[in-house]
């Protein structure tokens, strides 16, 4: 018996009914020889960790535009926090930790430079619209590995695609593990963005809604602890009644939703960041405009996309992959003078 088969056997013995067993995966688009040491989801996790798109997350901002402090979150540290929250929840419920980890690490690979401002610009630019969750799937299926993709399992792709959104009626991931990542993403970013906003002087502790703090807790760690415990307890209780859906209790879920709404009004779309958001839109729009005029300046892979899927798609893929630093450097190279003009 191989190490992989021992892990698969351990999963069958320890995970709950409804968990995604590695041995029962729907497989990959291109069939592969099974690894002797790692399950399919462990293989996916490792491919994601070692891909270039993952490394670029360290230079993509989470909320703030070009912050210079060492302690602000980036898209990479956000991803690691989501993974930590999701794995804790998965273990608490009895789900496949490896699948959760793979989805969590890949969920934001398609995010654009300058946080949600970048997504807004590309959404207006691309005729069929742009959503970072769909772009994350495109990254791992089409753009990574020199255009070959990572050939991830169906369950990981499904979890990436449906990680986004918090409103009722939005489609859920087919696995409970994918649903865990969706909640973990919200739990992580709402709380760490509060921490960063207070550090940046954009928000004061006393401005946080007191009724919400009474339910969730006054500190970042207490709120995360409340949310994680509630989602484990509520989901586990529902599963005992044969309701296979990851969820929070009504009161805790409403408190998280209200806290998220508060952050959108006060910080994400607030007036204090409007000037910086407008600057970011200006930079991105001009970089897009340049490559629409001069597509021959893009790397070879994107020229192939031009031929197969059109110029608009190729430019969107290229710009979406840029980190904040790379996008700013590109803008400066294209539009700023190289010498002082007297």
TrEMBL record:
<keyword id="KW-0378">Hydrolase</keyword>
<protein>
    <submittedName>
        <fullName>Deoxyguanosinetriphosphate triphosphohydrolase</fullName>
    </submittedName>
</protein>
<feature type="domain" description="HD">
    <location>
        <begin position="75"/>
        <end position="190"/>
    </location>
</feature>
<dbReference type="Pfam" id="PF13286">
    <property type="entry name" value="HD_assoc"/>
</dbReference>
<dbReference type="Pfam" id="PF01966">
    <property type="entry name" value="HD"/>
</dbReference>
<dbReference type="InterPro" id="IPR006674">
    <property type="entry name" value="HD_domain"/>
</dbReference>
<dbReference type="InterPro" id="IPR026875">
    <property type="entry name" value="PHydrolase_assoc_dom"/>
</dbReference>
<dbReference type="InterPro" id="IPR003607">
    <property type="entry name" value="HD/PDEase_dom"/>
</dbReference>
<dbReference type="InterPro" id="IPR051094">
    <property type="entry name" value="Diverse_Catalytic_Enzymes"/>
</dbReference>
<dbReference type="GO" id="GO:0016787">
    <property type="term" value="F:hydrolase activity"/>
</dbReference>
């Amino acid at each position: 018996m191989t190490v992989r088969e021992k892990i698969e056997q351990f999963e069958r013995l320890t995970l709950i009914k409804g968990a995604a067993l590695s041995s029962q995966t729907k497989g990959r688009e291109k069939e592969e020889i099974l690894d002797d040491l790692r399950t399919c989801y462990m293989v996916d996790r490792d491919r994601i960790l070692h891909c270039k798109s993952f490394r670029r997350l360290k230079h993509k901002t989470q909320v703030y535009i070009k912050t210079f402090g060492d302690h602000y979150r980036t898209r990479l540290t956000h991803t690691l926090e989501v993974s930590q929250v999701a794995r804790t929840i998965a273990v608490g419920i009895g789900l496949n930790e490896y699948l959760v980890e793979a989805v969590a690490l890949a969920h934001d690979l398609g995010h654009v430079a300058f946080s949600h401002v970048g997504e807004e610009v590309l959404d207006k630019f691309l005729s069929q619209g742009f959503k970072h969750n769909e772009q994350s799937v495109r990254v791992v299926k089409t753009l990574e590995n020199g255009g070959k993709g990572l050939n991830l399992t169906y369950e990981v792709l499904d979890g990436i695609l449906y990680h986004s959104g918090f409103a009722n009626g939005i489609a859920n991931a087919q696995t409970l593990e994918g649903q865990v990542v969706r909640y973990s993403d919200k739990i992580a970013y709402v709380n760490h963005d509060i921490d960063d906003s207070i550090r940046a002087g954009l928000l004061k502790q006393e401005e946080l809604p007191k009724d919400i703090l009474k339910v969730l807790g006054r500190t970042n760690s207490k709120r995360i602890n409340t949310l994680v415990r509630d989602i484990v307890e509520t989901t586990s209780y529902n599963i005992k009644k044969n309701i296979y859906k990851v969820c929070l209790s009504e009161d805790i879920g409403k408190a998280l939703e209200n806290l998220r709404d508060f952050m959108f009004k006060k910080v994400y779309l607030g007036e204090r960041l409007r000037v910086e958001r407008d600057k970011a839109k200006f930079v991105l729009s001009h970089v897009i405009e340049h490559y629409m005029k001069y597509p021959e300046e893009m790397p070879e892979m994107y020229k192939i996309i031009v031929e197969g899927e059109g110029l608009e798609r190729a430019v969107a893929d290229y710009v979406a992959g840029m980190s904040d630093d790379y996008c700013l450097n590109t803008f400066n190279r294209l539009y700023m003078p190289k010498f002082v003009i007297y």
